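User: structure tokens for this one?
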Amino acid sequence: MPEKNKTKTALIKAKSDGKVFEVEIGNFELKPGDEVLMENDQCQEIGIVVSRADEPNQDNGQETITLIRKLNDKDCQKAIELRKEACQYLPICTEKIKKHNLNMELLEADLSLDGKKLTFYFSAPGRVDFRSLVPDLASSVKKSIRLQQVGARNKAKYVGGIGRCGRGICCRSFLEGELETVTTEMACDQNLGQMGSNRITGVCGKLMCCLKYELDYYKNTKKGLPEVGKTVKTAEGEGVVLSQNILQNKVVVELNKDKRVVEESC
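Assistant:
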């Protein structure tokens, strides 16, 4: 018999610090990518639904997280206004960083949706002891302070720049949430592994994000192409596949009869 009154939950990532919490969602119909307003002991802030989780599997520690509602147009407009307000605190934080002689580069500021928590994002070559900075900032701005260190990939997201394609970098223009891991295997799956690391790295010095979100297309298209080394029949006779042109759905074939190289559509 089916279980009655089973608690429905979802894994929700806080936008401010990337922490993932398991939250009871009641009768809300949520899907991955939905933005929601949630509340903890400190403030109300925006979260992004990662996945549904009908079986409890996430330890929230001592924090109690309550889902208030899915983000509405009014919430989105308020978030834009708070983002502008948060920028006004950047000069104050910069001054305090210099005062405490800390080796950190300030990138961006963010206010929780109720305006209670102020998060500063920064990059640094190593770990930073900012224990004296936090209370100094809190006393100046009269808000709960969080300092969030980010790596090279997320630094580019905050700073911006132009990619190899000549357009604004994807992480700044449309990619949302935490950036996912990109591996050299993804480049190999797209026949880019032989190009060298300098050709497949972004302005952040890490592998380009587009290697991740274009991967499924390449994998699905490759399924319909004969593998390199396989013997195939072409309009000009049999030959061996030398390479694949995934974007054009073609293969390059060396003919057995005269060793000519031809391109064959699949």
